[in-house]
């Protein structure tokens, strides 16, 4: 197959849908709306901004200017030449990889069909429909998703957050209707590539590779294949499969008796794919050839990682009957440390440019798991290819979040089609560890008093698709999953996997420290961006004070402002500052610094409280790495890629080998060495007082393998407010951590002094520099 890109400059027309009367592209020539240049991939708001029809919606309160365009319809127009035919060409498809959202398509005035899902690709067979001479004219009409949603019926079993009811019927990234982490931006556009796909008469269609069993000595792997070929040749064809990864190589040939088949074979001494920290993320290049005697009729190259992945989980957990929530790769327990992946941008045509830098942050943080949250889009192959190479396990939510969706046959069919497309597209990536039915829908069912087991989407439709199309990968119905065993007692302490949001109070409160969960897949704490970043998205006359500040609330993110559902989050951030320091600073610079310290200490503690209880606790995926638009949030990197203090603190406690200090008990604190690798590590460590320089504990160590050991104990007083500094050296490298001893309120001025001890590894230009400048 070869592809011809139709990306680039198109014409775009927009007008209020209820006034347009436009039903066919010929009407565009008869006094229709004025066109403007559009970029594809793109979003209509970005095109209007380039044309001077819209101000930058990322700053101030200008995001509100997008509201009127929710009721618009948009027409895209493109002329293109028919590709010159080549010998062996077969059918031609017109492929739209991302259309937002309700579309009708015309080619040379003939309607091709329609689509109603932003989240998957749409293909149209145009064989014989392209002009032999002259240019082809392509039109796409995008209709208002809000008007579409308003024409639907809503049952008592359905529910959504205040601004998000339109998400229930429209298959569009849910965050676009407004969320607590993203603005309301009900966009439209051709947001991914558009291309012509010219197929060959003889092809190997996309195969499915899988691993049945694997260890260092050998692996049983398989491939499901399909071919397009002359049926008269069946029985005379051979499929040759050759895989290479470094010094490892396998080869298998099998006769092709039918257009589809399955072949399984053993690979001796394979190079296994491992998550980051546990080994190399080995990826095989697999070449397939369809041969007729000595002639190669078709060929293709794919990638594949040899590994098994399991999710060992129980339906409930308790002190009396401890449960489990544990990932195993190649039979080895994996302690997971990572972050949630949220929308890369509010306009998804910008995702492709941002994603590489975003994944750089996950690599720099030494994450070994990424959870792709269900309120956004499904990421493309470039995202998963990078995760494959980096050794990131990917927890993939289906794009369903925080709402009770329609329980109708029509909607089940929509989800079934979407899931089948996505699963078949992504299933060959070794990084893909888990399909999860949705984000928090079980929890919202509980809140409404509805048994989550009645949700046929997560209990029947999605698991059926996964078991049909990707049977060697685990499936979890919801996150967190409320099992029938839970529903009998309705006690949240029984959940083995949990989203720990709760009261968002002091980060060492009992809500966090006494949770019985094994795996926390969401947990967060607020932190201001740096002042220079705030000045980029808050207008000068709204920079201060934070109280009753509409622009701060809009960037909290609330579509209405201080009186909206999420306007409280700025006050929450101030309360978290007051919790740690006893007061809220009255200057923007000190407010931002105190907020970043509060966030950094909290998130570091969340990771440590999980690692210190390894293997009773088995992983943490905190919320979240980076913002998808400029805002005050839980992210540790702001929209402009400027790192908050929490990034450094988290980086310290994400090391494969980490020395940490546990909470006081019996007038002592434990010093613990955690090793998240399969190798024994030897080195030295030291713990000392930041103020006096007094050595408190030091010596050599020999680590456990994939486990924890106690290095010693330090005598403390419960009235102390001290910072203890930690250093350890292993394999010729020195790393650092610290421990904040004592109870709030701490002195902000004293903490600024402690920051100087950590400054050697602070990011340049960060809030750390503000701390120095205020001394």
TrEMBL record:
Residue intervals of the Glycoside hydrolase family 2 immunoglobulin-like beta-sandwich domain: 264-307
Catalysed reactions, semicolon-separated: Hydrolysis of terminal, non-reducing beta-D-mannose residues in beta-D-mannosides
EC nos: 3.2.1.25
Gene Ontology process terms (BP): carbohydrate metabolic process; glycoprotein catabolic process
Beta-mannosidase-like galactose-binding domain segment(s): 35-192
Pfam families: Glyco_hydro_2 (PF00703), Glyco_hydro_2_N2 (PF22666)
Alphabetical list of InterPro entries matching this protein: Beta-gal/glucu_dom_sf, Beta-mannosidase-like_N2, Beta-mannosidase_GH2, Galactose-bd-like_sf, GH, Ig-like_fold, Ig-like_GH2
Keyword tags: Glycosidase, Hydrolase
UniProt GO MF annotations: beta-mannosidase activity
Family: Belongs to the glycosyl hydrolase 2 family.
Protein's recorded name: beta-mannosidase
């Amino acid at each position: 197959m070869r592809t011809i890109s139709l990306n680039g400059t198109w014409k775009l027309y927009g007008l209020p849908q209820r006034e347009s009367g436009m039903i066919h592209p010929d009407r565009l020539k008869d006094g229709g709306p004025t066109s403007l240049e559009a970029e594809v991939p793109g979003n209509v708001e970005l095109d209007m901004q380039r044309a001077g029809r819209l101000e930058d919606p990322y700053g101030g309160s200008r995001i509100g200017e997008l509201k009127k365009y929710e009721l618009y319809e948009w027409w895209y127009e493109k002329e293109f030449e028919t590709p010159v035919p080549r010998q062996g060409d077969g059918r031609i498809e017109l492929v739209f990889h991302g259309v937002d959202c309700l579309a009708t398509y015309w080619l040379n005035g003939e309607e091709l069909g329609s689509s109603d899902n932003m989240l998957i690709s749409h293909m149209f067979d145009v064989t014989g429909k392209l002009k032999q001479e002259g240019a082809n004219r392509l039109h796409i009409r995008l209709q208002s998703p809000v008007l579409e949603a308003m024409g639907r019926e809503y049952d008592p079993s359905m529910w959504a957050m205040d601004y998000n009811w339109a998400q229930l019927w429209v298959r569009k990234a849910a965050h676009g209707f407004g969320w607590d982490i993203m603005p309301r931006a009900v966009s439209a556009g051709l947001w991914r590539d558009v291309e012509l796909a010219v197929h060959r008469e003889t092809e190997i269609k996309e195969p499915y590779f899988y691993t049945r069993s694997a260890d260092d000595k050998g692996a049983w792997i398989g491939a499901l294949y399909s071919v397009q070929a002359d049926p008269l040749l069946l029985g005379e064809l051979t499929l040759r499969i050759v895989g290479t990864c470094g010094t490892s190589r396998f080869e298998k040939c099998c006769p092709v008796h039918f257009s589809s088949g399955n072949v399984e074979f053993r690979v001796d001494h394979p190079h296994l794919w491992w998550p980051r920290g546990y080994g190399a993320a080995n990826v095989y290049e697999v070449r397939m050839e369809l041969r007729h005697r000595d002639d190669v009729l078709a060929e293709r190259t794919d990638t594949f990682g040899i590994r098994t992945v399991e999710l060992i989980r129980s339906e409930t957990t308790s002190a009396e009957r401890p449960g489990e929530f544990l990932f195993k790769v190649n039979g080895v327990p994996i302690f997971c440390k990572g972050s949630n992946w949220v929308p890369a941008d509010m306009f998804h045509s910008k995702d492709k440019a941002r994603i590489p830098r975003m994944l750089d942050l996950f690599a720099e943080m030494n994450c070994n798991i990424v959870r792709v949250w269900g309120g956004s889009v499904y990421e493309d192959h470039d995202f998963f290819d990078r995760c494959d190479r980096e050794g990131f396990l990917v927890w993939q939510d289906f794009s369903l979040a925080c709402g009770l969706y329609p329980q109708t046959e029509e909607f089940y069919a929509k989800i079934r089609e979407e899931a089948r497309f996505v699963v078949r597209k992504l299933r060959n990536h070794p990084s893909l560890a888990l399909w999860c039915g949705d984000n928090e829908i079980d929890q919202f069912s509980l809140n409404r008093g509805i048994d989550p087991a009645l949700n046929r989407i997560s209990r029947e439709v999605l698991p059926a698709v996964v078991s049909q199309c990707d049977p060697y990968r685990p499936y979890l119905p919801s996150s967190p999953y409320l099992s029938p065993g839970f529903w009998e007692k309705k006690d949240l302490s029984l959940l083995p996997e949990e989203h720990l949001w709760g009261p968002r109070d002091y980060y060492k409160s009992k809500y966090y420290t006494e949770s019985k969960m094994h795996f926390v897949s969401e947990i967060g704490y607020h932190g201001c961006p740096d002042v220079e970043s705030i000045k980029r998205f808050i207008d000068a006359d709204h920079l201060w004070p934070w109280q009753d500040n509409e622009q701060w609330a809009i960037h909290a993110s609330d579509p209405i402002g201080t009186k909206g559902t999420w306007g409280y989050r700025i006050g929450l951030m101030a309360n978290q500052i007051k919790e740690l320091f006893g007061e809220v600073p009255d200057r923007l610079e000190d407010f931002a610094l105190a907020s970043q310290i509060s966030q950094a200490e909290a998130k570091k503690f969340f990771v440590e409280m999980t690692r210190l209880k390894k293997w009773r606790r088995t992983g943490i995926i905190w919320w979240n790495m980076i913002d998808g638009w400029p805002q005050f949030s839980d992210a540790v990197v702001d929209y402009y890629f400027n790192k908050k203090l929490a990034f450094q603190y988290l980086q310290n406690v994400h090391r494969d080998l980490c020395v940490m200090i546990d909470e006081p008990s019996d007038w002592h604190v434990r010093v613990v060495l955690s090793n998240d690798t399969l190798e024994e590590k030897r080195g030295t460590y030291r713990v000392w007082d930041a103020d006096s320089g007094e050595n408190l504990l030091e010596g050599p160590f020999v680590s456990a393998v994939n486990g924890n050991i106690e290095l010693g104990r330090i005598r403390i007083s419960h009235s102390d407010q001290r910072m203890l500094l930690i250093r350890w050296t292993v394999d010729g490298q020195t790393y650092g951590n610290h421990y904040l001893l004592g109870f709030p309120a701490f002195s902000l001025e004293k903490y600024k002094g402690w920051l100087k001890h950590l400054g050697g590894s602070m990011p340049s230009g960060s809030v750390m520099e503000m701390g120095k400048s205020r001394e």
